[in-house]
Every structure is written in structure tokens, then in C-alpha cells.
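EI: anyone free to look at a 210-residue chain?
SC: sure, send it
EI:
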Amino acid sequence: MKLKITDIDSKAHGEIDLADEVYKDIFGRPVRRDLLARCVNWQLAKRRSGNHKTKEIGDISGTTKKPYSQKGTGNARQGSLRSPQFRGGATIFGPVVRSHAHDLTKKVRKLALKTALSSKVKDGKLIVWNGTAGASGKTKDLTAKLATLGLKSVLVIDGPAVDEKFALAARNIPNVDVLPQQGANVYDILRRDTLVLTKAAVEHLVERLK
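SC: here you go
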């Protein structure tokens, strides 16, 4: 199978010829929403700081003295003014500082990335550029070129190193992300409408995923 290569001005620059089995394995897989959901949940769980916490009775400052006698007052028995039924008291079963991260096997993560790439191909939302070098570094110029191509929400994945001027020009444009190939991930691919891979990115991803 062949992937057509264009440049940022939409001019043709040849093709990338991939073996049928390689193309089918990486770009031609059936779209499994369960795999994509598992991987996205795994990524977002790792990002959660988990620093939310409420005060338990041991965290409340105050006296430990029993408020009043156990019997004879006519009131319900109480052991501490720091108990949750009193104002300023503890919270029962509240959140505590913890990690929300959970495990996901490498095999599943790899398969989910292939599925995400395949979903973009199936939707006709995959574009291959010959590269990102040659950008002026000006946000205005890049915005105009993306508008000409009709790209409003796009993720650009470059080779091992992102072109510095292109990254500078893109970083202030809403809904435009730029990543090196080693940073390619399911969540960022799915959250943008169009996926742009450079020729170098395709070569490295094929080598990484085949």
C-alpha cells in the first residue's frame, strides 16, 4: 500500500510504499472503541494529581476531652467535639491523597495506538507531509497556511526532533498540537480532528509498531 506525501502547501511529493501486511497491521486495523477507551482512561488517570483530601478526626485541631458526662444530661452521648456531626468536625470516608494510576500492558497500549492511527485513515483524516522544515516561525504565516488547507483542529507528529521554527509558530494557535514521534499517543490523536504525520514520523512509527 502507498501513502501519498504532500507538503504544507498541498503540493505532491511522491509516495511512501509500505508492505501490505505492515500497512494492514498499523493503518488498516478495525476500530475497536473498547481499546481506545481503555488507553485514554489509562492516560488520563496517570495525569491526575490525586492530592485532594479532607480532614479526618486525627487531622482536626482541638481538645480530646469528652464534651460532657456520658449519662444524666439528656443529650446524646458524645466522645469528641471533633466528630463529624459537629460543625468544624471531621469528614467520614472523604478523599485521601493517593495515586489514580493503574496498569495497562504494553501489548494493549501498542494495539490501541495502531487502532487510533487506523481510525484516522478510515475517516480520511490522515495527511502525510514531507516535513515541517522551512517554516518562517511566524504564527500568522502558519495560521494562514492551515486555514488554506482547512485544518482547524490538527495534531502534527514530526520525526525524533520537531522543527524549532514550526513548533514556535504553532504553539499559540488554538487546537493545533505538535509532537515528536516518540510522543505519539492515543489521547492526543483522538482529541484532534486531523492527524498529520511527516515522512520521518511514518518511518519511525512503522519501525516502532511493526
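EI: The mean pLDDT is 93.
SC: 👍
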